[in-house]
Write a structure and sequence with these properties.
Layout lengths: L7 H13 L16 H4 L9 H8 L8 E4 L7 H13 L4 E4 L11 H19 L4 E3 L7 H4 L1
Helix pairs in contact: 4-5
Length: 146
């Protein structure tokens, strides 16, 4: 009942992200984690794996390079898009949303989506490479997110 069914991301974000994020806890180490079988049975697994990502980005024979943009630092959607562009133009293959960012008043999901799309297209045009950005989608459809 503590975590969303079928969401390993939600569980790990809650356990690791939130608990380990406390600045007062400096010497904390996760040594063991037991997931109740009833909960693990709700997870169906990822829809695809690394090979699909490599195919989408046309990157083989080396690690994929990416980073997480931290919008909780107060970036506007426009500045977030600029950060995405600079990362991709600078050589990264992809960027991704922080797992805790959804559609906050300071940066709405739709605005972030549009600025990220612009950043990707611009970086691709300038580098000649396929680039990616992984938006945090917390609803079933794009229409619900917007």
């Amino acid at each position: 009942d503590l975590f969303e069914e079928r969401s390993v991301t939600n569980m790990f974000t809650s356990i690791v992200g939130n608990v380990f994020g406390f600045k007062a806890l400096r010497a904390l180490r996760l040594e063991d984690l037991r997931i109740p079988p009833a909960y693990s049975k709700t997870f169906q697994g990822p829809p695809h794996g690394i090979q699909v990502e490599r195919d989408k980005l046309n990157k083989y024979g080396r690690p994929l390079l990416g980073c997480t943009i931290k919008p909780k630092l107060g970036l506007s959607a426009k500045n977030y898009g600029r950060a995405v562009y600079e990362c991709l133009r600078g050589g990264l293959d992809f960027t991704k949303d922080d797992e805790n960012v959804n559609s906050q008043p300071f940066m709405r999901w739709r605005d972030r989506f549009l600025f990220c799309a612009e950043a990707i297209y611009k970086a691709q045009a300038e580098t000649g490479e396929i680039k990616g950005h992984y938006l945090n989608a917390t609803a079933g459809t794009c229409e619900e997110m917007i």
